[in-house]
Amino acid sequence: MLLGAIADDFTGASDLANTLAKEGMATTLFVGAGGKAGDCEAGVVALKTRSIPAADAVAQSLYAARWLMDQGCRQFLFKYCSTFDSTPHGNIGPVTEALLDLLGTDIAIVCPAFPATGRRIFMGHLFVGDRLLNESGMQNHPLTPMTDPDLRRFLRLQTKGEVGAIHLDTVRSGPEALSSAFAAERQAGHRLVVTDAIDDDDLRRIGKVATDHRLITGGSGIAIGLPRNFRDKNLLGNKVRPLPVPTGRGAVLCGSCSSMSQKQVADYSRDNPHYALDTGALMAGKLTVSEVTDWVLQNSHANPLVYSTADPGTVSSAQAAFGRDSVATTIERFFGELALALVDSGVRRLVVGGGETSGAVVEALSVRSLRIGAEIDPGVPALATERNGLLGLALKSGNFGAVDFFAKALQQVGTA
Ligand SMILES: Nc1ncnc2c1ncn2[C@@H]1O[C@H](COP(=O)(O)OP(=O)(O)O)[C@@H](O)[C@H]1O
Ligand SMILES: O=C(O)[C@H](O)C(=O)COP(=O)(O)O
User: Fold this and answer.
1) 321, CA 20 to 30 Å: which among 31, 52, 119, 315?
2) Which ligand is nearest to the Cα of residue 141, counting in written order?
């Protein structure tokens, strides 16, 4: 294994694995660290650490990093959300600083840019499309409302040390100038450096200069230029293999409340059976997994949708009534148990919307690794794994995918 990545949620891990596979690295997505790595050139360890206490996120990330070091990795990538999903006391800073210490290195690029999905960084500020982060809808996220687009200022709330910055004009001034800028940041003691990028060429410029950086952090975009560095050193073996195709019934589970997920749920619901989870009934213990499982199986000929997706007002009301963390945990657990019941009842194609939701589903299925297939929409690949036979999955990041994503994904993760 050449490149080892640690992702703070499952859709993000899938998104990064997609980028690395598209750029020609034989990539495996691991559910947690440990066990046999098999024959891959890039390993992405999916964790569910984005919204847990920082100390726990650091411990789990260091365990994963040590496992990747044992697999022989030369370069390490800490992958978080392209919308920098975190909180003022969140985990991106502490995990990055702990990884710098473990890996014995003194600089980490901080670059969540992912232009293919509209995430761009200019003068240290994160844009989603033509909106600043705090006006993009991410300010309404149920767990990590993003209210400050200034990454340097926001990240500094989480770090021990000062946060540096390299702006677009330097990124575009050639490899020597960019290397010198990183050296200057090191000299200034800035171990985390927010680095501008507004298109894929910027990401490839940064990736090329970062060829010897032991640790890099960002969204999946920052990985675009990394496989080329390994190929230029004749380290890649053209090992990418096509994905096996499962056959069987499908279902869609969506716990994401993003603005795009709301559109996707509405679009899919027009032509397919759909079931909206009643959060109040769920919190009162009046809604059971078995009754929803029965409903899905009765409608399984039409690939039904089950969702908790709701508008920000509805989400806020539920959080006020039952507590943010309690609602989140209960809904995630419900989707995990539902997915397990469906797969063990013969469902062979599962499309999941939401990062935390996907983590709950994949962990409930107790699968150890997933293979990466073709990209369905930017940042979302088809995946395959084994549980009672071949299982096709798609783990959709909250705001990723076109409006018709669910129907498209069901067709691309297997056949009916
Ligand atoms: N109707 C709802 N009310 C409150 N919280 C919800 C609701 N539906 C989902 N959630 C919670 O919101 C969070 C959504 O996070 P996630 O699955 O990562 O979606 P995204 O990818 O959009 O960030 C999860 O913890 C989920 O359980
Ligand atoms: O947007 C990204 O970089 C990732 O794919 C991601 O982390 C999305 O997280 P979400 O919770 O699924 O929105």
Assistant:
1) 52
2) 1
Is the shortest distance between the CB of 15 and ligand 1 below 6 Å? Answer: no
Distant-in-sequence, close-in-space partners of 379: CB < 8 Å, separation ≥ 6? 15, 18, 19, 82, 114, 116, 117, 220, 397, 400
| Distance from Cα 50 to the centre of ligand 1, integer Å | 13
Task: Ligand 2, residue 355: give the atom nearest the CA.
Answer: 12
For residue 127, give the 3-state DSSP assignment: strand
| Residue that is last in its domain, among 179, 199, 232 | 232
Predicted-complex ipTM score: 0.98
- Based on the fold, state whether residues 214 and 329 are members of the same structural domain: no
| 165 three-state secondary structure | strand
Q: Is residue 245 part of a domain?
A: no
Judge if 213 and 318 occupy the same domain.
no
- Which atom of ligand 1 is closest in space to residue 279's alpha carbon? 1
Tell me the pLDDT tens digit for each residue of 267-295: 999 999 999 999 999 999 999 999 999 99
Q: What is the pTM of this model?
A: 0.96
Residue 255 Cα to ligand 1 middle (Å)? 5
Domain extent at residue 18 = 3-232
Query: Do both 225 and 257 map to the same domain?
Result: no
Cα–Cα distance for residue pair 264/273, rounded to 1 Å: 14
